[in-house]
Amino acid sequence: MKNSLSLFIRTTVAAFAAAVLLFSAGCGDASRTAAPSVSETGATRTISDALGNDVTIPVRPERVLALSEADLDAMLALGVTPAGACAGRGQASFPRYLGEETAGMTLLGALYRPSVDRILQVDPDLILAGGWLDAGLEEQLRRIAPVVRTHATGDGWRDALRGVASALDREAEAKAFLSRYDGRLEAVRAAVGAPGELEASVVRWNPKGPAFMYADSFSRGVLNDIGFRVPEAQQVPGPAHSPVLSFESLDQIDADWLFLGTLSGEGEAAKTLEHALSHPAFARLRAATEGRVVRVDGSVWTSAGGPLAALKILEDVEEAARNGE
Amino acid sequence: MRIGAVILVLLAFVLLSFGFGSGEVSPVVVLRYLFGATELPDREHVEMVLWSLRLPRILGAVLVGACFGLAGALLQTITRNRLAETDLLGINGGAALGVVAGMAYVGAATATEHMLAAFVGALGGTLAVVVVARRGGETSSPLRLILAGLAIASVFQGVLGFILLEDQNHLDRYRFWVLGSLAGVRTSQLAPALAGAVPGWVLAVATVRGCAALNLGDEIAENLGHRPGRTRLLAVLSVALLTGTAVSLSGPVVLLGLVAPYAARHVERDRMGRFLLCSALFGSGVLVVADTLCRTIVRPYEAPASVLVALVGAPLLIHIARSPRPLAALDR
Fold it and tell me: Which residues does chain A have within 8 Å of residue B184's beta carbon, measured at their own beta carbons?
């Protein structure tokens, strides 16, 4: 159902976008040649993006779109506010954890499904699109503005940061961010104690049963940076999360630290923790009896975030460690 | 006599279901525990698994299965159509839409609220099907009923899809639930479910005589002093209560309402009361077995129960459709 629906919507969007494109090609050309804002300031340069495409982009882009979660996050981390971006995974608007930083940006639509119509309204001069991108959409986008594939599917947030920095010519800022991150990492390690001897679990809660994040997922990567071990039962490669676990097998998610994330809003998330802790099987877990179950924002922990999300995870872990003492 | 055998088989399934699960608590350990062995390693864990995890699930499966089985049997009787079933007629879809709309727009969060929302949706679905399929007070042809049900079911699907596209939070919660599963059923959910199911069962019992008369045709039923319209209305209410309860607890289980009455008809087809009881028992039995398989075949993960039931239901649907007069009214 979901597939056929999204296919229907995609087809509709595509048809509509095609009509808009035809229309703008007919009447918009004159205005474009009349006001060549980019070439007037003179500067374009050609870069090779993460997928090996050579793209000619403005040296000083003014209206940049960030299509993936990591692109948006990385741009903000580099101190550039995109003109528009997609909503966060499972959310109605921009990722919650970015807070006020997204003020003034145009919402382009749901993640992976930006509205071409709104993109045309923003009239971008550069589009950053890392990770997965619909091939049909990509073709349309390239007719609107240069598209830079900042990172490949499955790449980590560092790759995303590097890709975005190279497209925006902000390599120095990226370097500064990474050293800031490394500094925080030291502080977190100190707060946790001996992370190398501790196991940590990242779990997505669902009333029908929890699922754990696989070893190559985003939050797992940050936990690896800190030095936490992956519980043996969870050493499954892959970027996503496991299927729903049976409550009888809940010991698979047990660890010294258990980070429990949901995509739902604040009030509901609090209820989730209560719900989980009241579950007889969950209450027996080592993490629960030792009070080391930490409720975290799923939009940061169980999605594919970027540099700022990684920093937020470090903060969460540090806070949990300090509270736990 | 034969019903006694069916009850025994159901009890056997329930006991078997107690023995198998996804964790390390094996049938042997369960047997030793039940026979009072004291030197069990981690006895507390075994107790927790049996009484807090397996028992609510099994009771849930019995309850939900009985609801779907009975709802299917009632629907088949009042429409005189062997293909009538809550899923095919869009009633499950109505209940599912009720729950999701309740979550999205009214903020329904507790088990009771979900159940009320599911009941409203199921009632809407049942009434829509009955109204659309009837013309000028005549019972509709079986084919028209099925087509009306399909049309209504797809309208519900469409609206449901729209709500979920708007809000992916609900999509996340809905995804596993929609496949029909008893995973995660907790003791605290059983009381509200019983509160919904019992009135449904009582209503069903109240319609037994009327339904038996309906089997003879509306005209004869009226001549015998029954009121077919009233019987149908009561049955519709009962179906909505049963489906709403079942769907809110487990999510829609596809084709169970087709399988259970079909099997029941082989045990008892003449006496209406026993036929309805048998359908409920078969519904429970099938779902208990399916749920046991769910937590064992892909351990440590959960498989959706509805898919397993559909593996039996779909061939049966094809079989009925290929029988000589698939859409003819029931013989009696």
Answer: 206-209, 247
Residue B328: inside a domain, yes or no?
Answer: no
Choose among A82, A55, A79, A48: nearest CA to A66: A82
Range of the domain at A96: 46-169
Residue B329 lies in a domain: no
Q: Is B297 on the interface with A (CB under 8 A)?
A: no
Nearest to A242 among B157, B181, B301 (CB): B301
Tell me, yes or no, whether B230 lies in a domain: yes
Residues A160 and A198 in one domain: no
Please indicate, yes or no, if residue A317 is contained in any of the structural domains: yes
Residue B58, amino acid: I
**Digitized pLDDT (tens) for each residue of chain A, 325 residues in all:** 445 545 555 555 555 555 444 444 444 333 333 333 334 446 889 998 899 889 999 999 999 999 999 999 999 999 999 999 998 877 778 988 898 888 899 999 988 889 999 999 999 999 999 988 999 999 999 999 999 999 998 888 999 999 999 999 999 999 999 999 999 999 999 998 888 899 999 998 877 788 899 998 899 999 999 999 999 989 988 888 888 898 888 889 999 999 998 766 555 666 777 778 888 888 889 999 888 899 888 888 877 789 999 999 999 999 998 887 5
Residue with tokens 């890392």: A130
For residue A319, what is the domain's CATH number? 3.40.50.1980
CA distance A240 to chain B (A): 14
Return the H-helix or E-strand segment holding A56. Answer: strand A54-58
- pLDDT one-digit tens code per residue, B180-224: 888 888 888 899 999 999 999 999 999 999 999 888 888 888 888
Please tell me whether residues A209 and A309 are part of one structural domain. yes
A94 found inside a domain: yes
Number of domains in chain A: 2
- Cβ proximity of A117 and A20 under 8 Å: yes
Interchain proximity B300–A281, CB inside 8 Å: no
Helix (H) or strand (E) holding A200, with range, is strand A200-204
Domain extent for B108: 2-322
Chain A contact set for B157 (CB, 8 A): 1
Helices vs strands, H then E, count in chain A: 14, 13
How many angstroms separate the CA atoms of B246 and B239, rounded? 10
* Chain B residues 298-327 within an 8 A CB cutoff of chain A: 298-302
Residues of B in contact with A246 (CB under 8 A): 21-23, 183, 295, 299-302
Query: How many whole angstroms separate alpha carbon B99 and alpha carbon B113?
Result: 9
Its pTM stands at 0.83
Nearest to B183 among A9, A92, A208 (CB): A208
Tokens 């809940």 belong to which residue? A250
User: Which string of DSSP letters, residue by residue, matches B222-258?
Assistant: HHTT--HHHHHHHHHHHHHHHHHHHHHHH---TTHHH
Chain B residues with CB inside 8 Å of A3's CB? none
Question: Does residue A27 lie within any of the structural domains?
Answer: no
Would you state the torsion angle of the CA atoms of residues B6, B12, B13, B16, taken in this order, to the nearest 10 degrees? -170
Spatial distance between the Cα atoms of A56 and A46, rounded to a whole number of angstroms: 4
> In angstroms, what CA-CA distances link B189 with A12, A64, A256, B110, B185?
42, 50, 31, 9, 7
